[in-house]
Design a protein that fits this description.
Number of helices: 3
Structural class: alpha+beta
Helix content: 25-40%
Low-confidence stretches: none
Strand order of the largest sheet: 1-2-3-4-5
CATH topology: Trna Endonuclease, Chain: A, domain 1
Largest sheet: 5 strands, mixed
Number of strands: 5
Radius of gyration: 14 Å
CATH architecture: 3-Layer(aba) Sandwich
Shape: globular
Mean pLDDT: 97
Length: 126
């Protein structure tokens, strides 16, 4: 995907997330927001995978661990969702680990758990 296509995809994810937060507000379990975002993005015609396994490999290629990305959009953009009071540094570290494991460049961290929805966009140079 081009940078402009990624920007458009991120804008669509933000817009959809705002709509979900406006409907549900904060206070639900993370899975509610995850399922709703998956549902709405799929209805919009996007390729959305949920709970995607990401293998962590050692220097010799041996699998030494596994992460699960909440959503993977168009095989390009990882979405990690939270429903917490505030985003913490460990949430950022988690997303960066996902990007390294998936060998992808783009991710978003979205927190539905606070009265005001929070977004963080990440670009990892591979």
């Amino acid at each position: 995907m081009t940078e402009n296509q990624i920007k458009e995809l991120c804008a669509l994810v933000r817009e959809t997330s705002f709509s979900i937060h406006g409907f549900f507000r904060h206070g639900h379990a993370e899975k509610v927001y995850e399922n709703s975002l998956r549902n709405r993005l799929k209805k919009g015609g996007l390729n959305v995978q949920q709970q995607v396994p990401l293998n962590v490999r050692d220097e010799d290629g041996e699998i030494v661990g596994e992460y699960f990305a909440d959503l993977l959009i168009e095989n390009e953009l990882i979405l990690e969702l939270k429903a917490v009071n505030a985003l913490l540094p460990e949430h950022t570290a988690q997303v960066l680990g996902y990007l390294r494991a998936a060998d992808l460049e783009h991710a978003m961290l979205i927190n539905f758990g606070s009265p005001k929805i929070e977004f963080k966009k990440f670009i990892w140079s591979v």
